[in-house]
Amino acid sequence: MRSFRPSALVLVAALTLSGVARSVAVGQANWEYSPYQVRVWIVAEPHPQCPAAIQSDLARRLSARAQAVCGAVWDLAVEPAPPGFVAALPDELNLPAAQFQKLSPDVLKGDKLLVVRLVPGSLGWEVEAREFDCHGWQWGPLIRRSASSTAELSLAIWDAAIEAFVPLARIETVDGPSVVARLRAGGLVVRSNSPVLMDKGSILQPIIRRNDRAGVPLPNTGIQPLAWTLLAVESRADALVQCKLHSGYRAALSSRASPRSERLALAVKPHYPATTLELRSRTAPQRLLTGYEIYAKRPDKEEVVHLGSSDWRGQIALPKGDGSLELLLIRNGAQLLARLPIVAGQDEHLVADLMDDDGRLQAEGAVAALHSRVLDLVARREILASRFRARLKEGKLDEAQALLDQFRLLESRADLSRSFDEMQKAVAASDRLTQQRIGKLFDDARKLLTVKGLSDDMVNTLVAELTRARAAPRTTPTSAPTAK
Questions:
Q1: pLDDT for 53-107, tens place per residue?
Q2: Residue 6: CA atoms inside 13 Å, Cβ hemisphere, count?
Q3: 374-409 tens-digit pLDDT
Q4: CA atoms within 13 A on the CB side of 357
Q5: Which CATH number do you get for residue 308?
Q6: Taking Cα atoms as reference points, which of 159, 107, 101 lies closest to residue 132?
Q7: Pairing of strands 203-210, 223-225
Q8: Which domain holds residue 445?
Q9: Is the pTM here over 0.70, yes or no?
Q10: Do 261 and 291 reside in the same domain of the chain?
Q11: What backbone torsions phi and psi does residue 372 show, to the nearest 5 degrees?
């Protein structure tokens, strides 16, 4: 009996697959069961109220506070910001991510960087904090707090830092609109109010990170927040959250993962008082889309609210709400152009590149005008024909001739056809889909010209009827006998 012996190739393949599975398991464990590596950089100019000893005390107090509030989910390090970073830091604290690679590349190996700037004032301290996510290379909102004294400074810094913190998740599976994501450090959570949790009602912003061989995002295209795409958390089971995908695009999130790409999701924390939405045409040259109607509805409700229309700048202000996801329905006339998910207040300014639908609306108006002209013309022809035949029956041939002359002065089918061709030439669109819709509108409208009431034979029929009436012998009424 011949015994089975696996070949060397089979053994290599098995070992390789085993190694890949073990690597995936280790990576998953590191993601779920290791704490956030959070680094806090203090930016403070030399000041008598904030000597080096005070900064050391602040670092100690913040670390103790993080341990008490966050427990094992945060591994916090507090230190003064590097001089080169401070010199390059803009007023809004949002240094371009590419400059980190030049100034402090090691910071990108962690999870979060919290930049805290302290500014002494006449009434105490002003505190500004902003988070940089080292995975998604995204700056969070700028948070401002104040402290009336140095004793209160550590609490103000902590309050700003925890508000600036944005929890992170990694997208595991995508099945149509159903998305499962794994929370960073989710396996370490023991408190229901942990800052790393995202429960039902939370909204996430998907981000695609594409890396080179060294694990660094590709230049220009390496970091891609998915436009007009949001995830709504529907439930959570430990570190896994079940989400529903809402997007203004089809297949916005691929179901297949690539070895060199990461599918991430950052929690949405609206902080602007309003979001200005600007509508522009998607084809060049871009133009502002004015007068487009904007409606809003919740995904789980049927009620639709009219928010207004875009102004002369193509803009409309959307006030910040309660942080819930809404679907914006953008219409031009009767045409629905887009369904865009949004959390008002997440961004200060958003631009939506839409199909320029003004040409279709113009064509819609031209077709409606043509329809009215056809109905009016058919009615007038029928009225004149009816009056003409009534005069023939009464023997009033001269009056019938006058009505026939009026009938001949009415627009004919050929007149309407020429006018229709001129209207069609005057309406055009740069957008291909809009032009197709315009063409269909005019093709359907052209069928109006074939209605029986516009037949050219009607004039010939009336002329023939008048001719027969003229040729017919006239009967004179019999005179009554004269009484004797």
A1: 677 888 899 999 999 999 999 999 999 899 889 889 999 999 988 888 788 888 8
A2: 8
A3: 899 899 989 999 999 999 888 888 888 999 889 888
A4: 20
A5: 2.60.40.1120
A6: 107
A7: antiparallel
A8: 358-471
A9: yes
A10: no
A11: -65, -40
